[in-house]
């Protein structure tokens, strides 16, 4: 006869632990460094801050690529955070799944829109 002391721990969902923590920190660092670089370009620019200045900052291909990388980092950062919120606070699996799909669609659409704005498609 076996004796069961305690209870079984039921873990639902996936992606627990260190990987998500690292993703959140790495994407936050990428966004923070981009913000500092962008602010430095604005602060050390000459002339009025207007459309021409902003267009000039984002005209270079390296800046467009860097900005798109930050858009992807922002979407990934938001996905990890929202997925955790849905898993923690929405108990019905069907509703949680719908919310996660809607979140993914929204983030993909925002990233696509960012691509469109950067390359004026």
Automatic annotation (TrEMBL):
Subcellular localization: Cell inner membrane
Listed InterPro entries: SQR/QFR_C/D, Succ_DH_anchor, SuccDH_FuR_B_TM-su
Pathway the protein takes part in: Carbohydrate metabolism; tricarboxylic acid cycle
Keyword annotations of the record: Cell inner membrane, Cell membrane, Electron transport, Heme, Iron, Membrane, Metal-binding, Transmembrane, Transmembrane helix, Transport, Tricarboxylic acid cycle
Cofactors named for this entry: heme
Keyword Membrane: yes
Primary localization class, coarse: membrane
Regions that span the bilayer: 26-44, 53-77, 97-119
Membrane topology, as annotated: Multi-pass membrane protein
Entry function: Membrane-anchoring subunit of succinate dehydrogenase (SDH).
PANTHER family referenced in this protein's UniProt entry, alphabetically: SUCCINATE DEHYDROGENASE HYDROPHOBIC MEMBRANE ANCHOR SUBUNIT
Protein name, as recorded: Succinate dehydrogenase hydrophobic membrane anchor subunit
């Amino acid at each position: 006869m076996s004796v069961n002391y305690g209870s079984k721990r039921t873990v639902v969902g996936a992606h627990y632990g260190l990987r998500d923590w690292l993703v959140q920190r790495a994407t936050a660092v990428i966004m923070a460094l981009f913000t500092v670089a962008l602010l430095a370009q604005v602060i050390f620019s000459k002339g009025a801050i207007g459309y021409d200045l902003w267009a000039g900052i984002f005209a270079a291909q390296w800046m467009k690529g860097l900005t798109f990388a930050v858009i992807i980092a922002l979407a990934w950062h938001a996905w990890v955070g929202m997925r955790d919120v849905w898993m923690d606070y929405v108990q019905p699996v069907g509703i949680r799944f719908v919310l996660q799909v809607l979140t993914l669609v929204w983030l993909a659409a925002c990233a696509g829109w960012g691509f469109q704005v950067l390359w004026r498609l």
